[in-house]
Amino acid sequence: MLGTGILRGLKETARNVIGSFREKDRLPTVMYPEETVKTKENFRTFPFLVYDGDHAMPGLRCVSCRICEKECPPQCIFIIQERDENNKAVKHPRVFDIDFSVCMQCGICAEVCPFDAIKMDNIYELAGEDRFTGLLVDKHRLAKSNHYYHQIKPTEANEVDGRLAEDKRKAEEAAKAKAAAAAAKAAPPPTAAT
Amino acid sequence: MSIPFLIIAAVILASAWAAVSLRNLVHCGLCAALSFLATGTLYLYLNAEFLGLVQLMVYVGAVAVLILFTVLLTRPATEAADAVPTKRPAFWKGALIAITVGGAVASCLAVYAAPKASTAPELSIQEIGRLLTASQQNVLALIIVALLMTTALIGALLLAAPAEEDTKGGGA
Amino acid sequence: MNDALTLNGCLILSALLFGIGLVAVFGRRSAILVLIGIEFMLNAAVINFVAFWRFAHPSSDGMMFSIFAIAVAAAEAGVGLALVIALYRHRRSVRIDEIPPASE
Amino acid sequence: MTLVERIDQAPLLLQRWAVSFFPALLQPWVAMLISAAAIIGVFASLFALSTLAERKGLGRIQNRPGPNRVGPFGMLQPLADGIKMLIKEDIVPLRADKVLHFLAPIALIVPSLLVYSVLPIGRNLIAMQCQLGVLLFFAIGASTELSIFMAGWGSHNKYSLLGSIRAIAQMISYELPMVLAAVTVILATSSLDTVNIVEAQAGGFWAWHAFTPWGAIALLTFFICALAESNRAPFDLPEAESELIAGHLTEYSGFKYALFFMAEYLGMMAISGMAITLFLGGWQAPLPILNFIPSWMWFFGKLACFVVLFIWIRGTLPRLRADQLMNLAWKFLLPIALLNIGLAGLWVKSSGWIAWPISVILLGLAIVGLGRLLRGSRPRGGKRIYRYAD
Fold first, then answer.
1. In 10 A of CB D289, how many CB atoms?
2. Which has more confidence, D201 or C97?
């Protein structure tokens, strides 16, 4: 019949209008500044540096090996290694800058880091007034606690913690074994001599 | 003569003069529309309400729009041809003839002794309807006008419709 | 309001309007403007009818004449403008001095 | 005067009270001024409300909440829009026809407001009772076409001119069936006076013209034409953003644009008011028991229903193609409207009940037949041939 299509269309839009007051599916808008979409655990934006313990600078896991700097495709990471008074390299970054305006959020730095020191964050509200220095982030702003890491990515953080604990245990065992071996070497048991 | 009448008359004459003397044909058309509108107002002022509204509807709503459409449809040529209103001497010669004729008639009328003023006639719309459909000669005239308008409509369509070969070949 | 004077005023107005219509017909070369001039002349005639109906002969004949005149004028404008368009299509111009005689 | 009557006539009493302060010589003028001011004030605020309703409603139709930032639930959005429009820069194109560009919005808004003078808003509430009310409405409405032409031409822009030409072609085409649909009512009531037309429909909803066979069809025709006359979707080709970048509105900004916008809504509401007056009993209550509700509230209630319908349709239907638009007007609405006039005459001359079956059969046949024709009509020349794409 002539006109039934129009009536069907009107019915559909009327359902939308009424449904928008009752069903979530028919009004999916999120009132952004007041409420935000809860991000998925695997959601990633920019990298940050993880530290253990309560103090940021001493607790940084980064040893300034500069693997991430070399692997970074857009070359947005800049690292200078710390040196002590004898000009000897220390396993700690003196400068660790990331230019967020260049970073493309690929996550390669986090993948390649052998020390699980750099991880991907999920903050996205980074708008600023300054085009250049505002997005050039230094190590103080990059450093975030392991606790925070657990908050945003619990599964991954637990896995990392487990791995680190395992490594640490292995390292300790190895050290113990080594120490034992060294001790044995230093003072060979009398039976061995015989 | 009353002030409203003078104002209406001034608008009619000024816009009509503008319509025949301006260079841009679109302006001419719009001024003609203003003149038609003012004429309609004059009818309203003279108690001929039905006629005034018909004037508004037919002239402002239809004829003026038709004129403007024609101006646009024939624009490239009119812009070139009539940018200057013809050769100036010709225009003024025409104006002279016309003003002489109009002025002569007007000056004769200016001394015309009008018949004694009667009371303003009232002609309601019902009466107009009755006059149009009940009296013999008016019915005949109405039918003739209807036929004329139908003929004019079909004739105008045939004249203005593009020739058949122009429309072939998709969205030409 | 002085009715007799207004009647004279109407008649003078219509004479002047007729004159202006003549200016367009004689002085302009665009066919469209000629048509506008003819419309002005028809309007002038209708003004006369209405003025006489209003002030001198209130017998409704003037009104009937005006109504039919407007109807005919509308038809005339339609046909005239259609002619202008047809003319433009054939000659690429709407200047009346370029129109060939009908016998051609 | 009872309290109910007093409330019913409140606007009129208020006007009389205000006028009584002036000397007798000025009184008619003051009364006119007050009527004009009331019309402008009421319908301008209704315009503001309907823009809000439109934005919210369209939002809900499209699964979004619509404006909700300004004021509680976004109620003050029209105010914000108005301030924005007022303080925006008024840009006039360099090669525009300055005079026409300036005059067009004024020439559009004046007729849009003028037509309200013959709409009876309530019992005795009409700005100008006129023997020829309906004719006046359409005669003044016809002059808006010239304003749109002025806007399109004055902008010196191809898209504006194209848009305005489209608008005028559309308005002329749809004015015809619209007037013919109104003629049926004039035939039935033998009056052009809007007040008489409303009074002829007194008594209850069964006395409304919309509840006769010819009235229903005429109302439908009138409504479709009203959509087209006010350039609303699905007939918004003249201001199609995707094709004509808003047509004759392209070169307008600031207050002039606001005037155009206002004229569109005022025109929409005026035509709705006319449809209510002609077919839906004007300010009459649908049932005699409901007469205690003031007459003007009935009018505005019906008007609100119409505005909602306009918005609903805008949110639902896609835009027509130009040839579909013209086919609908000339090949469907016009024949139906003509047939309808004949049926209205039959209704008036016959005793009523006999006209029902005849009207239903004839109109049904006509609608089905013409509908098939409409559906079968394709652009001329059969299969479309693309010149450059192949």
1. 9
2. D201
Q: List, for residues B130-139, the tens digit of each pLDDT value.
A: 777 777 778 8
Please give the pLDDT value at position D222. Answer: 92
Cβ proximity of C99 and C91 under 8 Å: yes
Pick from B31, B56, B164 the residue to mutate for testing the D interface (most D CBs within 10 Å).
Answer: B56
**Which one of A13, A20, A26, A29 would you mutate to disrupt binding with D, by most D Cβ within 10 Å of its Cβ?**
A13
Q: Would the CB atoms of C78 and B152 count as touching at under 8 Å?
A: yes
- Find the range with the poorest average confidence among A4-18, B73-87, C90-104, D306-320: B73-87
Spell out a b/e string for A111-128, using b for 16 or more CB atoms within 10 Å of the CB, else e.
Answer: eebebbbbbbbbeeeeee
Helices (H), chain D: 3-8, 10-19, 27-61, 77-87, 98-114, 133-142, 144-154, 158-189, 194-199, 213-229, 241-244, 254-279, 295-316, 322-327, 334-349, 355-376
Q: What ipTM does the predicted assembly reach?
A: 0.75
Average pLDDT over residues A147-163: 86
Q: The whole model's pTM is what?
A: 0.79
Listed by number, the residues of chain C in 64-103 with a beta carbon closer than 8 Å to a beta carbon of chain B are: 64, 66-68, 70-79, 81-86, 88-89, 92-95
Chains touching chain A, criterion 3+ CB pairs below 8 Å: D
Cβ-based neighbours of D317, under 8 Å, separated by 6 or more? A6, A9, D233, D234
Interface A:C, ≥3 CB–CB pairs < 8 Å: no
